[in-house]
């Protein structure tokens, strides 16, 4: 949807290079990043503001079934963890909660992983808030709670 | 603290509901489950997702979570959301936990506060970036529809994040504590400007209100069109009924917009 900041050329190539490079750099210059180390920022290279605004907290994400395990194994652990969470449909908010990455960071990484072909981001047909049928279904569903 | 933890739900509190409605909708009392990559979406609102991979063969019925199969999964549900907003300690997390089928999870976000001196008196008054924790929970409406509830702080104007939160939301419940009304002014203003349907819910801590509802309406300067209800954030049915008021407003807006 929204192109990533500075993105031209083959998206897959670009994303793969970017995701790999910072990890090597981080390992060389910061031998002990620790669990709360600089990685989320490194991983996103500060691109939080350029995240795709169509990806919301509730947006559903699934792992791309065709993605190769070998390729996934080369990714930084944070990204592997995200892909693993997406074996079942999951919201971006829940990915953020379970990885303890900030929402803004999570959104960028999910966008990257989609561009690299690892994740499918299910941007629905649009505005459920303006669909009376959908709202009626929610009303019926809530009424059934006891 | 302990008293408002959501009750210990059975493993799948709404499993019965979800199973029932799925059976009702797809009419498969026995035999193979509806194919996960079904050809016929049950509802026209089902999004046209990107090209599907070859659908897996129908999986055998295996309990209330048919999507828990390896291989090609069920299409994800269409997510809808309602915001639960309000100041510090008014009962947002309690509200979410009372009705969510999962224990509330927390996500953190950077919020840029356009502080206009509404935040904590004495604290920073300049524009700041703060990390804000949002709790959320969910309710499975049926196989293809899931309601998310986001508890979001409302005591200051957190521009960018609120826009993210409000985008596509069905509506909002503004939770207020009758003894600290001013905490909720910014969020009431925001929802009014954004045109988001909202309801003000007074969390009646231990059944007591510091002010009666008329006085609260007056103090908040909300119009007659904004429902003002009293509820108990710890009580599932009370929260359910309050959310139904929000949805009623959402439905009014949607039908009006459609007619226009
Ligand atoms: N007695 C009583 N206590 C309540 C009620 N609702 C919430 N509480 C308590 O009030 C405190 C705050 O409730 P929370 O649900 O955490 O409020 P919150 O809005 O999420 O708070 P923050 O996220 O910290 O801003 C908790 O200790 C709750 O136990 C209520 O209806 N009655
Ligand atoms: Mg809270």
From TrEMBL, chain A:
Q: Where is the composition biased (Low complexity)?
A: 21-31
Write out the ranges of the annotated region (Disordered): 1-42
One Pfam family it belongs to: DUF742
Q: Looking at the record's lineage, which domain of life comes first? A: Bacteria
Q: What is this protein called?
A: DUF742 domain-containing protein
Native source organism of the sequence: Micromonospora globbae
What broad taxonomic lineage does this protein's source fall under? Bacteria, Bacillati, Actinomycetota, Actinomycetes, Micromonosporales
């Amino acid at each position: 949807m929204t192109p990533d900041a500075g993105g031209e050329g083959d998206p897959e190539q670009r994303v793969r290079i970017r995701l790999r490079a910072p990890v090597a750099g981080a390992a060389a210059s910061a031998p002990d990043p620790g669990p709360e180390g600089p990685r989320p920022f490194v991983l996103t290279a500060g691109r939080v503001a350029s995240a795709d605004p169509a990806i919301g907290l509730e947006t559903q994400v699934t792992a791309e079934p065709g993605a190769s395990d070998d390729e996934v194994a080369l990714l930084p652990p944070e990204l592997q963890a995200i892909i693993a969470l997406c074996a079942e449909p999951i919201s971006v908010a829940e990915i953020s909660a379970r990885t303890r990455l900030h929402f803004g960071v999570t959104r960028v990484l999910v966008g990257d992983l989609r561009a690299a072909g690892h994740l499918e981001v299910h941007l629905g047909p649009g505005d459920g808030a303006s669909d009376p049928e959908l709202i009626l279904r929610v009303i019926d569903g809530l009424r059934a709670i006891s | 603290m302990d008293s408002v933890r959501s009750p210990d739900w059975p493993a799948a509190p709404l499993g019965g509901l979800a199973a029932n409605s799925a059976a009702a909708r797809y009419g498969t009392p026995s035999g193979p489950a509806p194919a996960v990559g079904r050809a016929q979406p049950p509802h026209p609102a089902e999004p046209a997702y990107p090209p599907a991979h070859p659908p897996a063969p129908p999986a055998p019925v295996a309990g209330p979570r048919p999507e828990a199969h390896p291989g090609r999964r069920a299409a994800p549900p269409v997510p809808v959301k309602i915001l639960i907003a309000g100041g510090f300690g008014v009962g947002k997390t309690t509200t979410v936990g009372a009705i969510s089928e999962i224990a509330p999870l927390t996500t953190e976000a950077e919020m840029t506060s356009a502080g206009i001196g509404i935040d904590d008196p004495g604290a920073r008054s300049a524009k700041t970036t703060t990390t804000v924790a949002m709790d959320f929970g969910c309710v499975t409406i049926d196989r293809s529809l899931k309601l998310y509830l986001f508890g979001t702080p409302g005591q200051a104007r957190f521009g960018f994040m609120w826009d993210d939160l409000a985008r596509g939301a069905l509506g909002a419940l503004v939770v207020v504590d009758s003894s600290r009304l001013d905490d909720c002014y910014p969020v009431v203003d925001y929802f009014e400007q954004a045109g988001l349907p909202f309801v003000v819910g007074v969390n009646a801590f231990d059944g007591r209100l510091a002010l009666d509802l008329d006085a609260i309406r007056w103090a908040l300067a909300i119009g007659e069109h904004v429902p003002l209800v009293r509820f108990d954030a710890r009580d599932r049915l009370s929260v359910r009924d309050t959310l139904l008021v929000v949805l009623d407003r959402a439905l009014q807006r949607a039908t009006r917009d459609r007619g226009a």
